[in-house]
Design brief:
Layout (H helix, E strand, L loop, with lengths): L5 E8 L5 H11 L17 H6 L6 E9 L2 E9 L7 H8 L4 E7 L6 H12 L3 E7 L8 H12 L7 E2 L8 H11 L12 E10 L3 E10 L1 E3 L3 E4 L5 E3 L2 E5 L3 E4 L1 E3 L3 E5 L13 E4 L17 E7 L5 H14 L4 E7 L3 E8 L2 H15 L3 E3 L8 E4 L10 E9 L2 E9 H5 L2 H8 L9 E2 L7 E8 L2 E2 L5 E4 L3 H15 L7 E7 L2 E8 L15 H16 L1 E4 L2 E4 H8 L3
Parallel strand pairs: 1-3, 1-4, 4-5, 5-6
Antiparallel strand pairs: 2-3, 7-8, 7-16, 8-15, 9-14, 10-11, 10-16, 12-13, 12-15, 17-19, 17-20, 18-19, 21-23, 21-24, 22-23, 25-26, 25-27, 25-28, 28-29, 30-31
Bound molecules: guanosine-5'-diphosphate and magnesium ion (MG).
Length: about 550
């Protein structure tokens, strides 16, 4: 397919502004999918995406479109909108020359509209503003046009007004893609240079790499080399995604497609790697900035015999989501496991849900913590969260953009929910790393009758020590069984006690319900009690069941 008739573009937007719906209409209009079906976000293939109604993984689809007597190949990459997945967005953009920036005609510019615009702007891509949902009763496309002109400096007459839901004016979008986005700058005569921008693991075929070809051609049977590992592979299959895999004989520079080359090990298919032909080495492409984990949590198998299964599930899923960082870890209470780094809380939840749904595992996930970094953000809420205002801009009479420096641990847990409820859903928020700042942090110990419980040592801000300590003590009180003596549960900073709960003494007599007689029944009960004790950990003379740790450490 001629390069000059190829366009590679992405759809970017704030969450819920209609990217996936617009993608459905583009697939229909180009005949890629049947129009008669009830198409709803067809590119959201994962179960977690369909259940939550959000896009988590970027997806690729090749469309063919006839315009003014010529056929064009349009490679569309749908991207997630939520702040936690902006890593997916920047990766997708590296395979594109332009973007459709979708803005809701009712809500106008929101936090991730701004964040995603700048990702595209920095990558020097053509930006086509698309104002969506003009069918809504409260739609005000004129106001949104002015916002776009003010914030992004894009003339308002460049905005395309559509309804993705009703299919209004979708042709103009395709026309703009052809007219305003340049074809990729590539050289088909040069030796192969292919960027791996995504990869998934298929149980039967091994690694399926999504590639964008910058130079050359690749065919089935070619011997290719990974610039990252220097290993050589034979290409078993190449093809395009329309949007399901469709094998072809060759892939040419300027095209986006997939490639299977017998890579078996998940470490062999690094995202950002460059592939070239054996004997024709090339300068590797720049690759990607590695994602920066913002939220950390421990992950453990519920039963240690599941360790190896969970290990391989985590490896396969991180191949598909390379923004997760994994380190081996172990806990006295929970055994061998991992410490995982995520881009945000939603990202953590989605990863956990995918592990359960796609790999059939069940895990213990501990309360997330953060490395102590500060971040930029916008809001109210501010004082209680130790923030400092940095920037203020009025987008129009009704909307203001605020930037604040925040400690990250203040926003990862429930900040987004509080902001939404305080502003009745009107405010939106995005963040980026602003480096480390000094803060008044203390180490907090949890003690049982004066003995430190190493599993529960945490770092907290001095002002929050009391409330955090109280929560942990309360959770522990609820999950510790009564024992023969009283137990004092304390949270302490150095020698200073900041919270305390007490578990009253109680004699657990398992025989209480056996009235006389049956000696075998008594023996059974005593044996069961002894087995139960094996799962206990002794702290001082206090027996702590594994359950109690799980209840204290687990999220919710
Ligand atoms: P995404 O998060 O940007 O991918 O957004 P979706 O495509 O999933 O759409 C979010 C919601 O907005 C869904 O409920 C869509 O049905 C709805 N929506 C999308 N486009 C339109 C539109 O043009 N008009 C109206 N009224 N609703 C739309
Ligand atoms: Mg979507």
């Amino acid at each position: 397919f001629p390069v000059e008739d190829t366009r590679n573009f992405s759809i970017i937007a704030h969450v819920d502004h209609g990217k996936s719906t617009l993608a459905d209409r583009l697939l229909e209009l180009t005949g890629t999918i049947d129009k008669t079906k009830n198409n709803k976000q067809v590119l959201d293939k994962l179960q977690v995406e369909r259940e939550r109604g959000i896009t988590v993984k970027a997806q690729t689809a090749s469309l063919f479109y006839n315009f003014e007597g010529k056929q064009y190949l349009l490679n569309l990459i749908d991207t997630p909108g939520h702040v936690d997945f902006s890593y997916e967005v920047s990766r997708s953009l590296s395979a594109c020359q332009g973007v459709l920036l979708v803005v809701d005609a009712n809500e106008g510019i929101q936090a991730q509209t701004v964040a995603n615009f700048f990702l595209a702007f920095e990558a020097q891509l053509s930006v086509i503003p698309v104002i969506n949902k003009i069918d809504l009763k409260n739609a005000d496309p004129g106001r949104v046009e002015k916002q776009i002109e003010k914030v992004f400096d894009i003339p308002s007459d460049e905005c395309i007004k559509i309804s993705a839901k009703l299919g209004t004016n979708i042709e103009s979008v395709l026309q703009a893609v052809i007219e305003r986005i340049p074809p990729p700058k590539v050289h088909r005569k040069n030796p192969l240079r292919a960027l791996v921008f995504d990869s998934t693991f298929d149980q039967y075929r091994g690694v399926v790499a999504n590639v964008a070809l910058f130079d050359g051609v690749v065919s089935k049977g070619d011997k290719i080399v990974s610039a990252h590992t220097q290993k050589t592979y034979e290409v078993n299959e190449v093809g395009v995604l329309i949007p399901n895999e469709q094998p072809t004989l060759k892939l040419y520079a300027g095209q986006v497609g997939y490639l299977i080359a017998g890579m078996k090990d998940v470490t062999e298919a690094q995202i950002g790697d460059t592939l070239y032909l054996r004997n024709q080495p090339v300068e590797p492409l720049p690759g990607f900035k590695s994602a920066k984990a913002m939220v950390f949590a421990g992950m453990y198998p519920i039963d240690q015999s599941e360790y190896n299964n969970l290990k391989s599930a985590i490896e396969k899923l991180t191949l598909n989501d390379s923004s997760v960082t994994v380190h081996r870890d172990s806990s006295l209470a929970l055994g061998a496991g991992w410490r995982l780094g995520f881009l945000g809380l939603l990202h953590m939840e989605v990863f956990n849900q995918r592990l359960e749904q796609e790999y059939n595992t069940s895990v213990i996930l501990t309360t997330p913590t953060v490395p102590y970094k500060a971040v930029l953000a916008s809001a109210k809420l501010i004082k209680a969260r130790r923030a400092v205002q940095k920037h203020l801009m009025f987008i129009d009479q009704n909307r203001v953009m605020l930037k604040y420096l925040f400690p990250l641990n203040e926003i990862v847990v429930d900040f987004y929910d509080s902001l939404k409820s305080l502003s009745s859903g009107y405010a939106s928020f995005d963040y980026e790393d602003a480096g480390y700042q000094t803060a008044d942090l203390v180490k907090m110990d949890i003690l049982l009758n004066g003995n430190i419980v190493e599993e529960l040592v945490t770092v907290v801000h001095k002002e929050k020590a009391h409330s955090v300590g109280k929560t942990i003590c309360e959770r522990l009180k609820d999950s510790l069984p009564r024992q023969l003596f009283e137990i004092a549960i304390q949270a302490a900073i150095g020698s200073k006690i900041v919270a305390r709960e007490t578990v009253k003494a109680y004699r657990k007599n398992v025989l209480a319900k056996c009235y006389g007689g049956d000696i075998t029944r008594k023996m059974k009960l005593l044996k069961r009690q002894a087995e139960g004790k094996k799962k206990l950990r002794k702290i001082g003379n206090i027996e702590v069941p594994k359950d109690a740790f799980i209840k204290v450490l687990k999220t919710q």
